Amino acid sequence: MKAIILLITICAFLNIAQAQKVSDVVKQQAGEGVKEGASIATQQTANKVTDRVLDKLFSKKKKKNDAKDNTNNTNNNITQSAPAQSSAGNNTQEINTPDTPTSLTTYSKFDFVPGDKVLVYEDFSRDAIGDFPENWNTNSAGETVTASSETGHWLMINKKGVFKPEGINKLPDNFTLEFNLIYSSDNYIPTLQTLFLSAGNGKDGNQELNADFSYNKRSGINLGIQPIPRDKGGIANIYAFKAGDKIMDNQIEFQNNGATKIKVSIWRQKQRLRVYLDQNKVFDLPRAFSPGETYNNVMFQTWSDFPNQDKYLISNIKLAVGEPDTRNKLINEGKFSTTGILFDVNSAAIKPESYGSLKDIASVLQDNSGIHVKIIGHTDNDGDAAMNLALSKKRAAALKAALISDFSIDGSRLETDGKGSSDPVATNSTPEGKAQNRRVEFIKL
């Protein structure tokens, strides 16, 4: 018994030391003028460390059984394989991210509707594995990698630094930004910050890699996401600055049932900012963006290096402009096209994050019961033309079925067709053009 009491006393001291260490990290991540969350994070971390110590002392057997159960839970685990050597001699780090299908209706409260014109689409398909992306800039380092249960290329971030997509000179008053985020960690890892910045002092700011708001009295938004795997969720924080002065801040907890992949959706409508993590709206701020300010930078940032082999992977970054006027375009112009309805690769399965766009269309049809429409699927030119044609028809049919089953639209009002890659609206030689061509049209009959 004395040994147990002594062990608990030692763990209590370790608890305090760990809490202080995390406090220092939180302060470092917060940046200039953003320190209020440190004490909260310290207390939360102290509680978590205490819980883990007591669990280890008195529930070792239970922990082992839980760990065994979690191994079979495909939502809760990322397994990192050993780095594989590519033919070019670069290291390719693969991360297993098992995908559990999510039904469309789980996103029933998801009202996000992406902009109707794609300005930037980044899937890192142009970049060789092991290289830093050609169309990005950084003051640190990163690599293009693959994820074993995901398609395509991803940018791996595991060091302190700023990571900036080039070619974005001005953000419009109405835009959407989406990206997929994978994280591999059993630890408390640095916050991933997404920043929208003004240049300050009349500079264009396109090549600047300084994310400090006090620098040149910049205005902007700082959105932070910090997954906490043991909590099956994490912390999201938001800071708004005007001319270098902080005018807004908040920090909330979010839950994602232990998933290791998050879809981040950001929607600006003039001053208003809405942020979604998967299907959950975590922020809806009517006065986040300052009127009269020009925002011309998008950056990602981490404030410290990562422990062990922890990392973030980001990809499928889509910046789109405009506020779709679905009703006017379909009713008055007779045609509406959207890139906001997404499907699994080489599949007619509708991704659940398409719910907002699909609901937008359904609302117009519900309010105008006399209208009949033809749904036409389109693809880019990757792959065989005949297979693309067949796939586009299947996707149109899947959308018809979803409108009938999930939104109670009369099926007799809907026709379907598909054109594959035969009718592009943009070049297929760039990721942005391909993203614009992967679309669905609704034609008024």
Descriptive report:
The protein has 445 residues and is of the alpha+beta class. The protein folds into three domains: 2-71, no CATH class; 90-321, Jelly Rolls (Sandwich); 326-444, 60s Ribosomal Protein L30, Chain: A (2-Layer Sandwich), CATH 3.30.1330. It is built from seven helices and 23 strands. Strands 5, 7, 8, 10, 15, 16, 17 and 19 form an eight-stranded antiparallel β-sheet that branches. Strand 13 and strand 14 form a beta hairpin. The longest helix is centred in the N-terminal third of the chain and has 29 residues, at 2-30. The termini are far apart. 38% of the residues are buried. This is OmpA family protein.
Compile the SSE list and pairings.
Elements: H1 2-30, H2 37-58, H3 60-71, E1 79-80, E2 84-85, E3 91-92, E4 95-96, E5 117-122, E6 136-138, E7 143-146, E8 153-157, E9 161-165, E10 174-184, E11 192-197, E12 220-228, E13 233-242, E14 245-255, E15 261-269, E16 272-277, E17 280-285, E18 297-302, E19 311-321, H4 326-331, E20 335-338, H5 355-367, E21 373-377, H6 385-407, E22 414-418, H7 431-437, E23 440-444
Parallel strand pairs: 21-22
Antiparallel strand pairs: 1-4, 2-3, 5-19, 6-9, 7-8, 8-19, 9-18, 10-15, 10-19, 11-12, 11-18, 12-13, 13-14, 15-16, 16-17, 20-23, 21-23
Keywords: Cell outer membrane, Membrane, Signal
InterPro entries: Bact_OuterMem_StrucFunc, OMP_bac, OmpA-like, OmpA-like_sf
Protein name: OmpA family protein
